[in-house]
Protein: M48 family metallopeptidase
Amino acid sequence: MAMNTSVFMHDSDKAALQALKAIPGFTQLLKGFMSIWNERQFQLLNMSSRLRLSEKQMSKYYDMLPPICKKLGIEIPDLYIELDVSPNSYTSGDTKPFIVMTSGLLETLPDELIPTVLAHECGHIACHHVLYSTMGRMILKGVLGLSGFSALVTTPLQIAFAYWMRCSEFSADRAAVLYDGTPDKMVEVCMRLAGYDKDIVADASVAAFMEQAKDYKELVTNSTWDKTLEFLMFSQYDHPLTALRAYECNEWSDTKQFKKIQLYLNENHFVNDFSPASREIPVRESSKFYIGKDYNEVESVFKSDGFISVKAVKTAEKGLFTKSGQVISVSIGESNSFEKDSWHRSDSEIIITYYEPLSTEELATLHSGRIQAPDSAKKCIGRSYQDVVQEFSDAGFTQIVIEKQDVKKGLLTKNLAISKITIKGQLQFAKGDWFEPDSLVRIIYQNIINE
Structure:
């Protein structure tokens, strides 16, 4: 069953990414990056210089990964160990993302916290951060500037990338909290990265660390100058401060949103098809988003998310540019207007209404006993009346009246050409319009006379 990661993504993550994309030059820089981007190079570097973990290689760490990926609904990425005394982990790539942990991380954290770190990195993959974060790291390290894109790497873009990357960490932290079911381990990870190495024998207090985090939050919230100073000091940082991360995790875990998502995750992946019908599921997009999409794709999305009462209903009514198979409307229960990430019962009736023209058989059944006009009034004008009479007669019309109109020869006058045609008195009708066989067809044609 698919996982809708949007429901736990931090609001600042979403807003910062939108702001980043809106900065002038972002699109050009992205195109330039993609022109030189070669994911294969990362694979060669990893395979040649780092230790790839597996069931056969340091399996106690690798075995931590599959359960995390299953719960977050992602494929298992490659996992590597890099020789580096600095405690760190990161995720890179695009179509085939991979995770790297440094040897310093394993020396700093006890083994029971490594799954939390891996869940954090898997959160980046689930939230589709990886391509932009890879690009951001290259920008902040000056690699893209060296690749001939220095003119595109402006200061506003550097600051915006760094800010978004800091905000994206909050979303990845939430993924770890959801996997653990509690913020305790993520808070401890932050505390240890802040200075509490596992080899330090002194006792450390999580409560005191959280009090420190709260004091910091109040410090920058209550003072405009401190807020400005924070920006000036950390504008190039790609990770939020450890105390702030711990504070965010702890605060979020007390919200109704966290409890609802935790229940959704547990039922989504552990109860499977035997989930109670009354459970709640978030929708991926708003109702407006699905308008114009292919109904098969929309139906598949709702079913894969776990909704059990999804019905596609066709209609022959269409808009001006509507194509066959396109969605006209989507309703959940009594409402055909819902917002992205809103929650609904899994047994809610979902009606996907899509346009499909009636088949020839359906049209005939719908208009039983009636026949169709072989051509439109507009197309009949100017044609030979004998041909039109024959077509209407072949179509089944039994009441055809022909009237001659004597006219003088002119530049545009055509002998025996129809000048007026009506069906049941209608001057305007289209090809395929339905009428009773005995509807009066009145045809007036021109007869050129010599003076």
The radius of gyration is 34 Å.
